[in-house]
């Protein structure tokens, strides 16, 4: 099938030609007619399969020129970065169409957005909370919305946006078309559908959990943060192979730590995005990485979901995610649009259960790779990895009372408490080798 087979118009065809897209992806092909029919539609397909255009193409095809003030299309996405990205995709597709579109998200001046909305527009792309604030300010009315899209609905619900999404839905006209896209189908997603959709047509492209075939996966069994950082420093030194690396970490404090640690070896080459950073910082870091100004980006899961960054050569799972679906989303950032990609997975002893869950979901084992001999195996633990002895020593102290001073003391105490005995405990746990040869012997003995 080619784009010629879809009922597109000349301006859209020309825009696609400029983009050099040869043919629609399966989800684009299969979602087109149902969306054109005006029915409610639910689309499930893996990351990187072109879901954005799957809803944009038919919606833009149906959108007629108008000067009316109230928007007719509302697209809701979970993060600010995704707002920016979807707006860009719309701009690409509407190079030859006169259309007014606005991206609405929190963390930046609300008055500017209010003014933009009040000038009148056709399409609003928004995160739910900021949009709702603007509705309350009467900057925008949603009574003319004809089509409503929730993109990345699974992330939206994971982030706890259900309440905000429902608030918005209540303001929409009942005779609207609702469209929803997700990479995974979970129970909460099902519930969302049954509460808000009218007998939707479901389009499902691949079983959620099927790994993309063009991603080469590798698993390192590795004891702790410092050893992981050593391994990364060793690998990333090869700039020919490691061209554009996206590193996932679930915890933002660990992300900060890694940023600092890698920054010593690769100054100026690293972007960092997590929810603790300001909006401007986040946008700049993502665009630096996207444009190749920084070779490495460290990101938490929430920040990176749905982001489409071209030509990521490697995805590094700095930790083994608790939810196997998150692994699928992470590795889906590479090998996009049928290019080859590589995904590294770092697993500690404590994360073995998570690894098993991932392998069960994919119905395959992630091939094991040995840590290269040049990499220093560290036994030094970072504070987050040390056991929380402080609570036992100070039973009356809660974590909340006391800010920095408390933490400082906690670290000091730990040093005293841990001493050699803790080292020995860890050494025992990992059967820490004295030399590389010992280590392999230990591995063999374990089996
Ligand atoms: P998803 O939302 O499913 O994760 P995206 O919509 O972000 O995927 O698309 C992934 C990438 O594929 C984007 O860079 C997009 O420009 C590209 N893409 C989309 N449709 C096509 C197509 N028909 N042919 C080639 N590339 C495409
Ligand atoms: Mg998407």
TrEMBL record:
**UniProtKB keywords:** ATP-binding, Helicase, Hydrolase, Nucleotide-binding
Region named Disordered:
391-447
Return the InterPro entries for the record. DEAD/DEAH_box_helicase_dom, DEAD/DEAH_RhlB, DEAD_box_RNA_helicase, Helicase_ATP-bd, Helicase_C-like, P-loop_NTPase, RNA_helicase_DEAD_Q_motif
Q: Which domain of life is it from?
A: Bacteria
State one molecular function term (GO): helicase activity
Q: Where is the DEAD-box RNA helicase Q domain?
A: 1-29
- Specify the protein name: DEAD/DEAH box helicase
């Amino acid at each position: 099938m080619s784009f010629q087979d879809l009922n597109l118009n000349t301006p859209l065809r020309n825009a696609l030609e400029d983009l050099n897209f040869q043919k629609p992806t399966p989800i684009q092909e299969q979602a087109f007619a149902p969306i054109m029919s005006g029915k409610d539609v639910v689309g499930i397909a893996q990351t990187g399969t072109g879901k954005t255009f799957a809803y944009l193409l038919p919606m833009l095809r149906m959108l007629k020129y108008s000067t009316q003030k109230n928007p007719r299309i509302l697209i809701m996405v979970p993060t600010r970065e995704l707002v920016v990205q979807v707006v860009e995709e719309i701009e690409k597709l509407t190079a030859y169409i006169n259309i007014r579109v606005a991206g609405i998200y929190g963390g930046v001046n609300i008055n500017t957005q209010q003014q933009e909305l009040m000038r009148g527009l056709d399409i609003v792309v928004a995160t739910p909370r900021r949009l709702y604030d603007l509705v309350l300010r009467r900057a925008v009315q949603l009574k003319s919305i004809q089509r409503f899209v929730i993109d990345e609905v699974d992330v939206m619900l994971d982030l706890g946006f259900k309440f905000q999404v429902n608030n918005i839905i209540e303001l929409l006209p009942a005779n609207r078309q609702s469209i929803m896209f997700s990479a995974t189908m979970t129970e909460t997603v099902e519930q969302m559908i049954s509460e808000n959709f009218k007998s939707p047509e479901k389009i499902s492209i691949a079983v959620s959990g099927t790994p993309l075939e063009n991603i080469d996966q590798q698993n390192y069994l590795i004891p702790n943060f410092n050893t992981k950082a050593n391994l990364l420093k060793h690998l990333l030194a090869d700039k020919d192979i490691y061209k554009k690396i996206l590193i996932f970490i679930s915890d933002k404090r660990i992300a900060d730590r890694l940023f600092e640690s890698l920054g010593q070896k690769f100054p100026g080459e690293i972007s960092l995005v997590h929810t603790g950073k300001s909006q401007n910082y986040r946008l700049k870091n993502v665009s630096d990485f996207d444009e190749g100004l920084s070779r490495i980006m460290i990101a938490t899961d929430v920040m990176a979901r749905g982001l489409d960054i071209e030509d990521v050569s490697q995805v590094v799972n700095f930790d083994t995610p608790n939810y196997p679906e998150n692994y699928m989303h992470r590795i889906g950032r590479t090998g996009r649009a049928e290019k080859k990609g590589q995904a590294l997975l770092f697993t500690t002893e404590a994360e073995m259960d998570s690894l098993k869950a991932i392998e069960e979901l994919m119905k395959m084992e992630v091939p094991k790779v040995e840590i290269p001999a040049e990499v220093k195996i560290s036994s030094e633990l970072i504070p987050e990895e040390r056991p929380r002895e402080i609570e036992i020593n100070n039973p009356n102290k809660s974590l909340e009372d006391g800010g920095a001073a408390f933490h400082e003391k906690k670290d000091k105490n730990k040093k005293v408490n841990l001493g050699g005995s803790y080292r020995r405990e860890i050494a025992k746990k990992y059967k820490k080798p004295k030399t590389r040869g010992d280590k392999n012997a230990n591995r063999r003995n374990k089996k």
